[in-house]
Structure formats: structure tokens, C-alpha cells
Amino acid sequence: MKRDMPFKSGKVFFIMYEVTPSNYLVFANGKPFYEFAHRIPLERVNWLQVTGDIVVQELSIIGNGPGVKGGNLLMSEAQRQLLPMMGPCIVNAPVPFTTNIRGGMIPKRTIVVKGIPKSRAKSFTVNLKVGFNNDVALHLKAQPNKKTVVRNSYINGAWGEEETELAKNPFKDGEYFDISIRCGEKQFKVYVNGSHCFNYAHRLWNLQQVDKLEVEGDVNIVYVFM
Questions:
Q1: Cβ atoms 62, 225 nearer than 8 A
Q2: What range(s) does the Galectin domain occupy (predicted)?
Q3: For 189, how many CA atoms within 13 A lie in the half-sphere containing its CB?
């Protein structure tokens, strides 16, 4: 079957390999591109190599299966702390997007959202919510064309005090990002593009009730992983 070439000279692209028991599922720019059946046993695959005329902006390895921490794969300390994650990978999800978080945001649970702001994006939001009453434990509002990333909570029908201070805004118009939200005992730790971005102290303490993820605004989702 003939496929359109997803890679163009000078243009940013994103490629993802999803490993299944029988094949590699290849996604290009968030869309299914190719399926390649395994020819080598997976336990023997322990190197990742990128070569050629390319500038690598980001490389991530996600998952909780065998071999994620092993072999010769090198990960930063931040990446190691973001494991393990649970549940399926949701690819190319429509926006607005809502999904349930099975068991709630228990300590050590990590959620990853990979996406790209739409052209001339004003803002997009990522919310961790309580499903039965719509309280928001963490409201993250990214504004690619401004210097602020707003954080807040919505409890008992009222917004709390905003937190906006950051050294720099990691979200840029037309550039892929990944947000990793790690739930701790006392706070959420949020990483963007592999680097620690901010901590957010819990304002809702019954973390198991925080059971809904919501993404809205001027953004295209590449994948969500929980």
C-alpha cells in the first residue's frame, strides 16, 4: 500500500514505535504509518540508534514492560523517577479529551501527555479532576505566546490562588512537548520535555478521588500514557 511521505526537509516531525507481542506499530506525526513484524526476539533488542542528517530535539522511552530499565538503554535520573506508568497508550486523541484514571492519582502514578500546540495557539489546559463533583486538583494552563504557565485548583465551586512563577515557559508555538505529571505524597511533580518544570503542593488530599484527566484548548494530542 502506497503511503504519503510524512517527513519533509526542514520540518519538525514526531515518530513513535509502539511495541506489541507480534510487531512494531509505527506512528508518524500522531498518525498510523506502518506495521513491521518482529524478526528478532524482543529480549535481544537493547539498543536505540539514531543516525543521519537529523537534529534530535527529544527522545523518550515510556512503558512498564520488561526491559524498560534494563539492557544498554541510558535514561536520565528524571526519566527513572517517572517510572512506572500504568495502563494503555492512547494515540491521536481528539480534543477536548477526557478519560478516567483507574484508581485515581495514587502516589507514584505518572501521567504523560505528548502533543503540539496549534498554529497561533492562545492556550491549552490539562486538568486532573474529581469525576463526581468536578473539583480540579491540578489545573495547568499553558500559554505558548506568553511567559506564564498558570497552575491552580478548583475546590467547592471556587478557584484558589494562581501560581505562575517559572524561570521560562517551556511551551512554544509549533513545537512538540511532553508533560509528565508525577503524583507524590505531598505534591505533584511536573516535568516538561524531560526537565523538571515545577512542583504543585496538594490542595485536595483524597488523591484516589482524582480520577479524571481532561485536555482542552488549542492543542493536538499525539498520545496520552498513564
A1: yes
A2: 1-62, 97-226
A3: 16
- Average pLDDT (129-133) is 96
Mean pLDDT on 151-160:
97
Torsion over CA of 149, 163, 201 and 64, rounded to 10 degrees? 0
- Cα separation, 119 vs 12, whole angstroms: 13
Q: What is the pTM of this model?
A: 0.72
- Give Cβ neighbours of residue 90 (< 8 Å, ≥ 6 apart): 99, 223, 224, 225
Going across the sheet that includes 97-100, the strands are 97-100, 210-217, 124-130, 136-142, 149-155, 158-159
Characterize the bridge pairing of strands 219-225 and 110-117.
antiparallel
3-class DSSP assignment, residue 153 = strand
Other CB atoms within 10 Å distance of the CB of residue 190: 19
| CB 142, CB 226: distance < 8 Å | no
The whole-number average pLDDT for the span 201-206 is: 96
